[in-house]
Amino acid sequence: MARALGAQAPLSVQIGSDASLRKHGFEGHNNLSFHRRSWNSTSLELKKRNVQLKYQNEVVCMSVQQASKKKVAVQPLELENAKEPPLNLYKPKEPYTATIVSVERLVGPKAPGETCHIVIDHGGNVPYWEGQSYGIIPPGENPKKPGSPQNVRLYSIASTRYGDSFDGKTASLCVRRAVYYDPETGKEDPSKSGVCSNFLCDAKPGDKIQITGPSGKIMLLPEDNPNATHIMIATGTGVAPFRGYLRRLFMESVPNYHFGGLAWLFLGVANTDSLLYDDEFTNYLREHPDNFRYDKALSREHKSKKGGKMYVQDKIEEYSDEIFKLLDGGAHIYFCGLKGMMPGIQDTLKRVAEERGESWDAKLSQLKKNKQWHVEVY
Ligand code: FAD
């Protein structure tokens, strides 16, 4: 099957060839790798072989100009057909039993805490759109309601609807282990570790997992204008939905959606070792320099202009003129991550607006009214 991506001087590339796999963000690391922590070679080879097997007969045709921006073929394309996003296909009383494909640590040794990339096989039975969340019911009894299952915990989906294997059968999550430090001793108290995040990060391939959803409409990627600007502000695991967006915008060959706008990601984490999916994002910078910007705020390594720790709001302030102009031009702005990120960001935006002689309250209500303002914090 041939997919035509461009009209001039067609060039055929076998999807699944080493060259094409390298181009699809698998470059230089033998395949998927996150922040210098590659998938181990066994799972790596297995994944690569799976992708090769799935796409060995598919050929992409593209123009010479586009050859440097080869995209991955995805299936099933019926996932493009629905007019509305899937919602709550599985509820807490009747969850779907999915299977863990892989759990990989995403961060380096100097990162405070642990964050994992978890791939879940839903067999194509729990479809979702980019920006939605899954609910996970961890095993065991609800301590507050003996005899009842644990409460559902929500996790933003970090893959596109086609999943990391591009076949519509998996979903990926980006999960940070919740740990508890005794405020008096400063020591970790494992008896108070977060139930679901630790269950997910400790899971092994083949383990069964109860999922609900998908849920959420706030963070869906508006696709009515393929030339729109999307400004994404993330702290930590808040990057999850944006990884999904960016794979859809830059990595996958999606019929009828050819992105020509600007995607600008601001990512705030503690230090270089805590960066998430940095290789993937850096690759987009290389391949789509006109359509992608990527700014990092490493609070424990960078200093803000005022000499303090560098947080995302300091990066926003640095680029506030451009950001305000883009918002005035209709850009979408998204925030995702810990709840604590919003007050600092809102204060910064308010201050910048006032310096520009604008009322932030009026501007914010206009952004909300225009559906340009998208917030999911937890
Ligand atoms: P829980 O068991 O629910 O415990 C919660 C916290 O309480 C933990 O920090 C735990 O250490 C602490 N604790 C436990 N016992 C005690 C005690 N006795 N005294 C004091 N403290 C205690 N998280 C992600 O990692 N990635 C995501 O992409 C993500 N997306 C989300 C999207 C949405 C829309 C929402 C609402 C939340 C999202 N979350 C995400 C957060 C996630 O849902 C969970 O809240 C988080 O993983 C913690 O759940 P847990 O079961 O591990 O912790």
Individual helix count? 9
Report how far apart the termini are.
44 Å
- What structural category do the secondary elements indicate? alpha/beta
State the fourth-level CATH superfamily of the largest domain.
Nucleotide-binding domain of ferredoxin-NADP reductase (FNR) module
Using the alpha-carbon principal axes, give the shape.
globular
Strand order of the largest sheet: 10-9-12-7-8-11
Q: What would the CATH topology of the largest domain be?
A: Rossmann fold
Query: Could you give the order of the helices and strands?
Result: EEHEEHEEEEEEEHEEHEEHEHHEHHE
The fraction of residues in strands falls at: 15-25%
Ligand list: flavin-adenine dinucleotide
Domain FAD-binding FR-type: 93-221
EC number: 1.18.1.2
GO cellular component, one term: chloroplast thylakoid membrane protein complex
GO molecular function, one term: ferredoxin-NADP+ reductase activity
Question: Care to describe what's here?
Answer:
Pathway: Energy metabolism; photosynthesis. It is a single chain. With 378 residues, this protein is α/β, with parallel strands linked by helices. The chain folds into two domains: 77-214, Translation factors (Elongation Factor Tu (Ef-tu), domain 3, Beta Barrel), CATH 2.40.30.10; 229-377, Nucleotide-binding domain of ferredoxin-NADP reductase (FNR) module (Rossmann fold). Helix content is 25%, strand content 25%. It has helices at residues 18-26, 41-55, 195-202, 240-251, 278-287, 312-318, 320-328, 341-355, 360-369; strands at 2-4, 11-14, 33-34, 37-38, 59-62, 72-73, 96-105, 115-121, 133-137, 153-156, 170-176, 208-215, 229-235, 252-253, 262-269, 292-298, 332-337, 373-377. The protein is globular. It binds flavin-adenine dinucleotide.
